[in-house]
Specification:
It catalyses: Cleavage of a beta-linked Asp residue from the N-terminus of a polypeptide. The active site is at residue 199. Substrate binds at residues 227-230, 249-252. It comes from Dipteronia dyeriana. The protein is built from 10 helices and 15 strands. By secondary structure, it is an alpha+beta fold. The protein has one domain: 4-Layer Sandwich (Glutamine Phosphoribosylpyrophosphate, subunit 1, domain 1). The strands form 3 sheets. The chain has an 8-stranded mixed beta sheet with strand order 4-3-2-9-8-1-14-15. Strands 10-11-12-13 form a 4-stranded antiparallel beta sheet. A hairpin with a 2-residue loop joins β6 and β7. The longest helix has 23 residues, at 20-42.
Length: 329
Amino acid sequence: MGGWAIAVHGGAGVDPNLPTERQEEAKRLLTHCLNLGISALRSNLSAIDVVELVVRELETDPLFNSGRGSALTEKGTVEMEASIMDGPKRRCGAVSGITTVKNPISLARLVMEKSPHSYLAFAGAEEFARNQGVELVDNDYFITEDNVGMLKLAKEANSILFDYRIPIVGLETCSAGAAATESLLQMNGLPISVYTPETVGCVVVDKEGRCAAATSTGGLMNKMTGRIGDSPLIGAGTYACDLCGVSCTGEGEAIIRGTLAREVGAVMEYKGLGLQEAVDYVVRERLDEGKAGLIAVSNNGEVACGFNTNGMFRGIASENGFMEVAIWE
């Protein structure tokens, strides 16, 4: 065993004009979450306990797009989704269409441990949450003043936004007519703006070599109600097995098509690649024209990340003392 390792992310595809204070705020939160996970690992918590703990913290803070502070649907509501996976027996749980559960990642774990299923969504997931006695809040709890303003701008731009905290000047550029529309990224043939989705995730390998992964998001700003992205899909946004744990972020539709998280484990198993080699291969070969990033750990204590965007909010640490929090290449 190579000791424990942990990685956390807050989205891939960062606006190059992101204000310095926003960058520092993100780094502080990522550092806090890493330290929380490190402390838990030193206290011998299992990998699955640590990924849930860290993602709950990210869901509670409104900075990134999960839990409180989630992106808004076209109707101005919040529909969240999350998944969690325990590597040793490949147990998993996922939820979508969550509107009242304070911490969707914990509901996903309850689906894994307290239901006969792997995935519950919308009214069924909400009913399961009530039956399990999890903490519930009004949908307004998740909505922030900034998000309401960004939804208004997104509607004026007639666009789905990856980063719902785009500076107004950038959004005005996106809505400046047909010429601007032609320059936008296409998602399933439709234009969207190119900024970070700010999904959150955590991957951990504990000192016993057990891997786990968790991912949580509010999705895209101004998304259609009922849209489900990659984050709750096992093998796409989240995957863990005996070899590794992976959490993805970015253009959900591209991640789904490429079954990105599972591909990391697959090329390790079938091509014999090391963790970083596998991450690099998958980002290079499995995204087609999509934009995304991922974090990963292996059962021997390796930790890695990769992305084909200009940046990704990320932090990594390992038992040997290495720790890094970064945004850009």
